[in-house]
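Appendix B. Raw example, untouched.
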Amino acid sequence: MELIARYLLDTNAIIYLVNGRLASPLPDGKYSISIITEIELLSFSGLSDEEEQRIHDLLLVLDRVQLSDTVRDLTIRLRRNNRLKLPDAIIAASALAQQAILLTNDQTFASIDGLDCKALQLK
């Protein structure tokens, strides 16, 4: 039995994907996002109608990691130990709770113990 890799997409990863900026396709696996990523994506003030529709279309096929007790507790620990901004701590906690690889180009996450991060190559 082959294990399916789990990935959590950071906000910047989705922006790159939606705007066609990735140098290669995303790896095969099961994808999710933090509820915070959805909020960040849809709250950009300069979002065009076309961009918003592409984001909504993508969100339809992604699992959402909600703010569970586990995510809450991990977020608290990450903020205490790493001095992260709240949204970043929730995204990192969401990846940890899902035992997922965080796809991100934000170097803030690289120093978090136990968090598996992978950067995306851009065009």
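End of appendix B.
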